[in-house]
Predict the 3D structure of the following.
Amino acid sequence: MKKILMLGTGGTIACVPSADGLVPALDGPAMIKLVPELEDVCIIETKQILTLDSSNLSPKHWQIIAEAIAAHYEQYDGFVITHGTDTMAYTAAALSQMLRNCQKPVVLTGAQLPIQAEGSDAPENIYHSFLAATSPLKGVALVFGDQVIHGAHAKKLYTENFNGFASINRSPMATIRHNHLFWEKSALQGGGYGEGEFAINTKLETRIAVVKIIPGTAPDILDYYVAKGYKGLIIEGFGAGGVPNGDNNWLPKLEEVLKQGIKVVCTTQCLYDGVHLDTYPMGILAERLGAKSAELDTLETAVVKLMQELAQ
């Protein structure tokens, strides 16, 4: 049987009631006891590395998780990370960039209801995660509801629905039916991970911000981030990802920001089909000034990529 390490980080899946609402409290052994079917799947060891509501996770916690995997990489055949759902897509994106040439399964999962709650989705999500962690999967994936999603393409769409996550701009790696994983044809062929020696890169520049444009947002909002010493900005624009260039013209301010050495990445408020700066003048002109396209990346992946680029 394969040997899998379960890393606990807290989240709803591990919550119990308190006077102030649900708080994460259960550790790995307590949760594993509630999924007895796992006895026939693999040998499981657990390690509690965090006990947090995922809304309180920050980039330093992504580094802690990546370093825990690296420290135990040779000792285990795969990893399962239990995590809160609110920022799990960010952690999945971070690990998919930080873990280089990862040849073992690293699977994140969580739940919309605590594992001890009646009708919880937690036991199934945990069980399916261990199925994925004992499969030929390579690299980072998120298992939730009836899907296995590549770590760089996951996004939370629902606050309560048991199929809370979607795979953005990539087909799900697998669908789950009757406790079986049905893999997409190319899902087990590397997942975009290299074939060299495993390594991690946890360097991150955290002085970046996401600026969401709504109709009428004035470009002088960028002055705040310049004054505060931010190193990179992700502009969440409309449609294909460009910035306004009419009466409310963002281009002069964008040029000013770029000339100060601040990296600018254009993304879109649309979920699917990505950014196309070569389609309309607002994108073409922004790109000529030096703004970069997030292309098909989710916002979460674009954030991590920019953090890593600026940290080099």
Remarks:
- The longest strand covers residues 43-52.
- The chain has a mean pLDDT of 96.
- Residues 59-72 form the longest helix (14 residues).
